[in-house]
Structures are given as C-alpha cells and as structure tokens.
C-alpha cells in the first residue's frame, strides 16, 4: 500500500538557518504530494502541493519539488523564523482519495 | 475565507460513555473526511463521504464508531462506547469534488480524552 516516510525529528534550528525536511514515498501510479503544517492545538493547514513530476510547490518561502525518479518531496526554506516552529507533515493522495501521512517532523526555531 | 467548522473543540468523557463530534465543511464541498490523529503520529482516515454516501470506511472500527452525513452537508461522528484508546484528535476535512480538486481543507479538530 501507499506510505510516506519523513526524516526523524525533532529538528532544532537557529533563526535564519536553512531548513530541509526529507520526505520519500511509496505509491503506485502518480500521486499528488502535499506538505501540511500543524501549530500546537490546531488542525492542519496546507503549506504547498505538487500534482505531477518535476512540479515545484512553494508558499511563504517554503518549497518542495516532486522528484519521481527518487520518489521524494523534500521541504526546504532558506531562512527560518521563530514563527515557523510547528509540526510538518508530508502526505500523498491518489485521485482525491484519502491522504496518507508521514509521522510528522517537529521543528523548533530558536531566536 | 471559508473554513471547516468542528465542535466541540475539547471533550472529556469516561470509558463506556457515548460521544459525538460535529463537522460543517466548506460550503459546496462534496467530499468530507474524518481522520483520527493519535498524539505524535500523522492522521489516519476513518471515513470518507461523497455527498451523503460513504465511499471509504475500511479503517472505521464499526463495532463502536458510526458516521453519517444525512443531507450531504454537515456530518456527525459517534463513538459508543468510548475506550481509553480512543483518546486522540479527531479531524474533519473537506474538498470540492473527488478527482477534480484534491486539496483537503482541515478544521481545527476535536481533542478527545477518555478517562
């Protein structure tokens, strides 16, 4: 079945540091890929998405590229802020069906 | 900006009691999802509705969980009887229509604690 694997966390960075959170997936066909963010005590917010190979999703300085050859969708940001502290989830979906999520990566950014 | 509404936000109940959660999706969204998120894990689908019909409930523990979306708009998820292992965040999400727009929009969730 479908699965998503995220890098183990938690991740702790200083403000303005470079962020990479790795995500790889296993799925048949051509899934759509997503990054969601969850702030403490809240639901999930869509951060960015990509629907086909080589697409780059971007939002709020975050970006991720759909790499079919490596089955990856790594999240990057050039300069993190304290307000980026949250849990980040990589997920996939095929044809509007369920989202399959990774385990989540806790990011803490210190001033 | 339209949002998915859920209530209550928090619920504390005792083992063997019944609990119910309510979700109102974004207006016009045909597909509605209920996910369960155990602390420290990613959400997992419990049930998916397309309009008023269930299209995926393969992971729903049907001996104690039930879900309905009678008029194809809002939805209720019920647990009876609740067990200690049901303590989790219950998330509702909606999307415009299956296959055409895959982005799912999530509500704030209901955090359930079973004592």
Round the Cα radius of gyration of chain A to an integer and report it: 13 Å
Q: Give the biggest sheet of chain A.
A: 6 strands, mixed
- The run of helices and strands of chain A is EEEEEEEEEEEE
Distance between the termini of chain A: 41 Å
First and last CA, distance of chain B: 37 Å
Strand share of the residues of chain A?
over 45%
Uncertain segments of chain B: none
Which pair of protein chains has the largest interface, and what are the residue counts?
Answer: A-B, 24 and 30 residues
Helical content of chain B stands at: under 10%
Give me the strand/helix succession of chain B.
Answer: EEEEEEEEEEE
Explain the overall architecture.
The complex is a heterodimer of chains A (111) and B (115). In chain A, 0% of the residues lie in helices and 50% in strands. Chain A has no helices and twelve strands. In chain A, β10 and β11 form a beta hairpin. With 115 residues, chain B is mostly beta strands. Chain B contains no helices and eleven strands. Chain B has strands at 5-7, 10-13, 19-24, 31-37, 44-50, 53-56, 65-68, 75-79, 88-95, 105-106, 110-114. In chain B, the strands form two sheets. In chain B, strands 2, 4, 5, 6, 9, 10 and 11 form a seven-stranded mixed β-sheet that branches. Chain B has a four-stranded antiparallel β-sheet with strand order 1-3-8-7, with no helix packed on it. Chain B is globular, with a radius of gyration of 13 Å. Chain B starts with a strand and ends with a strand. The model of chain B has no long low-confidence stretch (mean pLDDT 93). Chains A and B meet through β5, β6 and β10 of A and β4, β5, β9 and β10 of B.
